[in-house]
Amino acid sequence: MKKNKVKKMGRKTVGMMAAVLLCTAGAYQTYSYFTEKEEVTNVFTVGDFDISMKEPEWNPADGDGVNMYPGYTVYKNPTVKNMTDPGIGEQPCYLQMRMKIQNEKGEIITDQKTLDMIRRTIRYDKTYTGKWDKTGKAEKLQQGKIPGYSEGDISGIPMVNPDFQEVNTGKAGEYLFQYKGGNGGIMRAGEETVLFTNVVIPTNWGNKDMEQIGRFQIIVSAEAIQSNGFASAQDAFAALGQSVEEGTVYEES
Predict the structure, then answer these.
(1) Bridge pairing between strands 79-82 and 192-194
(2) Is residue 46 within 8 Å of residue 225, measured between CB atoms?
(3) Distance set, CA 112 to CA 17, 22, 90, 115 (Å)
(4) Alpha helices in 97-185 (DSSP H)
(5) What NCBIfam families does the record point to (predicted)?
(6) Which residues are CB-neighbours of 34 under 8 A, at least 6 positions away?
(7) Phi, psi of 218 (to 5 degrees)
(8) Measured in whole angstroms, how far is the alpha carbon of residue 18 from the centre of its chain?
């Protein structure tokens, strides 16, 4: 790779996640809604291939996330697909996804109690049927279900897809998940995977809980490196991490 022998190829940038604005009104009534500001989810690649990330379930313009409340459940499905053109040959890759939790000003949230609570609203339901290019449904965590789900109901459902392994970044509010599914963690052309499927506000949360999480944003991005030339996923992720640190991977604006 040039400077790390990195070859810059095509990438796709997809708008994915809006800022969440949570506020309270009155003594017994709690409201929350998404602001009009939309964050861009970025895709970075290292190598001769192409990946794309979409979230077909999420559309704030249609009211997703508007007037949220304890018990509110909505589908969100940040999904990555290896979009490599078969015409250039088999180009498998290793994938990792980053999640940052920020306040409404775009600053990383560092309060651990707040971060833990926000993480508890994110869930992966394996029964969800949606894909990279289409919406779907889930049996366990159904969008719009009344009265919704308590923390006890969702406690046995993982935060993210078990095909991803969380790696400690050492930075509060910044999380890294490396794909370990498929063929030894390798995504081949045409394959896809989703990080999580739902945002769930527990029914047993009250005003103090909503005030604790406050105004926040969840930013998701994807990074990938072609697997050819690496002896192991560990070696590939180390090279990818170095490329990200040195700024030798790029995004398409």
Answers:
(1) antiparallel
(2) yes
(3) 22, 18, 43, 5
(4) 112-120, 151-154
(5) cognate_SipW
(6) 18, 19, 20, 21, 60, 64, 65, 66, 68
(7) -115, 120
(8) 12
The answer to whether 223 touches 240, Cβ cutoff 8 Å, is: yes
Contact indicator for 18, 106 with CB cutoff of 8 Å: no
Residue in the structure block whose two tokens are 């994110």: 122
Which amino acid, residue 59?
Answer: N
| CB-based contacts of 234, cutoff 8 Å, min separation 6 | none
Strand partners, 175: 99
Residue 27, SS3?
coil
Residue the block writes with tokens 């997809």: 14
User: Could you report the per-residue pLDDT of 147-167, keeping only the tens digit for each?
Assistant: 999 999 999 999 999 999 999
Quote the pLDDT of residue 58.
Answer: 84
Q: Which amino acid is at 189?
A: A
> Please, are residues 164 and 84 in contact by the beta-carbon 8 Å criterion?
no
The single residue listed with the structure tokens 């279900």 is 145
Q: What pTM does this model have?
A: 0.82
Which residues of the chain are under the pLDDT cut of 50?
A: 1-40, 252-253
The predicted pLDDT at position 82 comes to 92
Choose among 2, 48, 84: nearest CA to 228.
48
- Report the 10 Å Cβ neighbour count for 72: 22
Give the number of other Cβ atoms within 10 Å of residue 107's Cβ.
10
Closest residue by Cα to residue 105 from 217, 203, 22: 217
